[in-house]
Structure formats: C-alpha cells, structure tokens
What does this fold into?
Amino acid sequence: MSDSSPARPAAPVVLEVWCELQCPDCRSALDDLRALRARYGDRLELRLRHFPLEKHQHAFAAAQAAEEAAEQGQGWPYIEAVLGRVAELGRKGEPFLVEVARELGLDAEEFDTALIDGRHILIVDADQAEGKAIGVTGTPTYVIGGERLDGGKSQEGLRERVEEIADRLLAE
It folds into this structure.
C-alpha cells in the first residue's frame, strides 16, 4: 500500500527578536525584519520578545500595549506603527499608544484598560528575565538556531548573518 498523503511542511525556523518599542535601533531594524519576512514568508517565524530598557520611560508600557495588540490580532502592524514613530512615543507617552491603537481600528478603550490593570505585565517581565538570563544587554538582539546576534551595537551585516543561519537550518 503506497502512502499518498502529502509531505508535511517543515516547521518554520524561529527568529526571536528581543526588542523595545522606544528604541531607535529597533526602528532601523524594521527594514531588515520586513526583508526577512518577504524573503522567507511562512518558513521563518518572527517572534517578538520584550526587552524594555530603563533609559526609555515609555518602553515598558509600549511592550504591554504590543501584547494587547497581539491579543486583538494586530501584533505586528501595531509594533511597526509604534516603532516607526519612536520620537512621538518619547514625547507623548501612553496616550500615544492608545492613539495608535485607535488609528489601526483596534479597541482603544481596551488598550487603556490593559495599561491601567497591568494584565500583560507578567509576559513582559518574563521576556525581560529570560533575555537577561541568555545575555541580552541591548536591543535589538536576535536569537536564531541557538545563536545570539547583538544588533544594539551595530546592525551592520546582521541580516546577512540571520539569512545564512536560516538558510542552513532550512536546508537541514
């Protein structure tokens, strides 16, 4: 008896992106992330991990807001919208986070409530603790195939390095 079931697609390669939404370096990294998504599609799973830095006073709230956006089904669009306007976040703070939610057609009242009741704090804290445990010190930092790439110092050549690792993992 021949097995005619279609081959199961390989699991995607996971790229963890340790990021914070008030970080200019993370904003610059957006182009790389878009290019990686365009090149790999479903074969590369981008996983945002929160690593708010103390020097950015609105980063912790922004991480919580990103979790609320993900819960409302608009995680990446929200992250990209906020990252694209880091200076505005720095100036306006939390009201800006709710404003972006409204612009994207999300439930802005729910965002406001989530920031007040702190329902996403544990996720952000857990990400931050895990990041510290694996040696993340700045953002963006990428982890792919067990390798940590620090983009907080320089973005130079990082996308190429991620592509080399992803290509190798996908070929295995």
User: Anything to note?
Assistant: The CA atoms of residues 21 and 84 lie 9 Å apart. The first helix runs from residue 24 to 40. The chain is about 55% helix and 15% strand.
